[in-house]
Design goal:
Elements lengths: L7 H15 L8 H14 L5 H10 L5 H10 L11 H16 L4 E7 L5 H11 L8 E8 L2 H9 L1 E3 L8 H7 E2 L4 E4 L1 H4 L2 E5 L13 E6 L8 H14 E9 L12 E5 L2 E4 L13 E4 L5 E4 L3 E7 L3 E7 L4 E5 L15 H14 L8 E6 L11 H16 L3 E6 L5 E6 L5 E5 L15
Parallel strand pairs: 1-2, 1-7, 2-6, 7-8, 11-13, 16-17
Antiparallel strand pairs: 3-5, 4-5, 8-10, 9-10, 12-15, 13-18, 14-15, 14-16, 18-19
Helix pairs in contact: 1-4, 2-4
The structure holds S-adenosylmethionine.
S-adenosylmethionine binds next to loops.
Length: about 450
């Protein structure tokens, strides 16, 4: 069969369906991935095009079976045993001692978005190998929207090469088999109940209240409104003083009132009732020439520019962003961040430490005003040219610019949205002149 192509209209329909069904947001750049993943579904039905496939989803799938298959194809299921090992240490060293101190001998954990099962089995091994938990009532719920990965999880059979991350004593104790595959022991299976649960559907078919919910590397594919709703629902499902474990590039900083950071990507349930749904509180920070500021928590960074340049960088996936403010494209001095290259490098490395990835960054360039036109120097132009050249060389797209002119500018850059507002200092400029107000 000829290579299938996916027209704008069908791509948009598939993205919308996936968002509405599973909460998963697929960016416009992922068209090739969608074609690669769904081509076999088109062929499965002997269809000639994605157009026919979309018509089938619309008109000939009343029970939603094909919709379920489509979701199965488009989920990202990467996982491994003892992924982010500090979470399992936290369980042993903090959660269990706290439960014991409260006189409890009962433990309930939910692995929400468990993929092929490595996460719940790692939890089960951690608990089963702790002699101090003998006699405790322990249950783990493991769920996923993807029926294929859930079946693999339930089967509990893995290639021997996939369990190399499991410490040797646990491999011996909890896996059987000698061929190419290994099976998890019946003791571990007995601790886990597997269920098909779509996290964005309401209500969940669950009565239990959990001491810990592991929802790691799942919400990274959701937009912030969907994340917000989900975390508030998790809050209700967690027992008092219980914990939520998030993935390495997920954070809940805007929910501080109900989830208190308690370790690396671990949050402790707080408060009696969830805070009313609200937009995250935004911190205000002001920077000056030679400063660089990047943040994970919602922050509005403001600065005042003459011939200087400020570059705002934003990673839409992890929602971290930051701003620099440099005075001269190139040169040397006691504060190297006054110079373009150092200011850019510092900003990028701060963002990467906060979970951003250079290949996702988007830039906004502001400043470079010819505010001292009578002095006839071209610092402003050199600064603008430097910022454009530097970003092009790093492969970072420029989403918006507001450069040049003869007025100084004040700007405010939001780290969690990448929005940037710019005003001429003499008189405010109207909305349509916002640099990259890209909504
Ligand atoms: C990248 S895996 C993460 C697996 C595991 N938690 C880990 O961190 O290793 C994400 C999983 O979330 C599941 N998922 C995505 N959207 C979901 C939804 N709406 N409801 C339930 N599971 C979902 C996917 O099917 C996938 O198996």
């Amino acid at each position: 069969m000829n290579e299938l192509s996916l027209a704008d209209e069908e791509f948009a329909a598939i993205r919308e369906l996936l968002k509405a069904t599973a909460g998963i947001h697929i960016s416009a750049e992922k068209r090739t991935l969608v074609v690669a993943r769904l081509a076999r579904r088109v062929r499965h039905y002997g269809l000639a095009s994605f157009r026919e496939y979309c018509a089938l989803l619309r008109e000939r799938d009343p029970g939603g079976e094909e919709l379920g298959e489509m979701v199965n194809c488009l989920t990202t299921n990467k996982t491994e045993f003892f992924r982010e090992p500090h979470h399992f240490d936290f369980l042993r060293q903090r959660l269990i001692p706290e439960l014991r101190a409260r006189g409890s001998r009962r433990l309930r954990i939910w692995s929400a978005g468990c993929s092929t099962g490595q996460e719940p089995y790692s939890l089960a091994m951690t608990l089963a190998s702790d002699p101090s938990l003998t006699g405790w009532d322990i249950r783990i719920l493991a769920s996923d929207i993807d029926t294929h990965v859930l079946a693999t999880a339930e089967a509990g059979r893995y290639p021997a090469t996939a369990i190399t991350d499991v410490p040797e004593p646990m491999r011996r104790e909890y896996f059987t088999g000698a061929g190419p595959d290994r099976e998890v022991s019946s003791r571990l299976r007995a601790m886990i109940q597997f269920r098909h649960i779509n996290l964005i559907e309401e209500p969940w078919p669950i009565n239990a209240s959990f001491d810990a919910i592991f929802c790691r590397n799942v919400t990274i594919y959701f937009d912030q409104a969907t994340q917000d709703r989900l975390y508030r629902r998790f809050w209700k499902q967690i027992a008092p003083a219980g914990y939520l474990f998030a993935g390495h590039s997920e954070n809940l900083f805007w929910l501080r009132e109900i989830f208190v950071p308690s370790g690396t990507t671990v949050y402790r349930k707080a408060g009696d009732r969830p805070a009313p749904a609200s937009t995250p509180k935004t911190r205000e920070v002001s920077i000056m020439e030679g400063d660089v500021h990047a943040a994970r928590e919602p922050t509005a960074i403001s600065t005042l520019l003459g011939s200087c340049i400020a570059v705002g960088l934003f990673d839409p996936e992890t929602k971290v962003g930051g701003l620099n403010h440099f005075a001269i494209a190139e040169g040397q001095g006691s504060n190297p961040q006054r110079f373009g290259a150092q200011a850019m490098e510092t900003l990028i490395s701060q963002l990467c430490r906060l979970g951003a990835s250079v290949d996702r960054l988007q830039a906004k360039i502001i400043g470079g005003g010819n505010v001292q036109a009578h002095l006839r120097n071209d610092v402003a132009e050199q600064n603008i040219a430097f910022a454009r050249r530097y970003l092009a060389e790093r492969g970072i797209p420029v989403a918006a610019e507001r450069v040049g002119g003869e007025a100084a500018m004040r700007l405010s850059f939001e780290t969690h949205t990448g929005r940037c507002r710019v005003w001429a200092v003499t008189a405010p400029i109207d909305d349509s002149a916002h640099a990259g107000d890209d909504r």
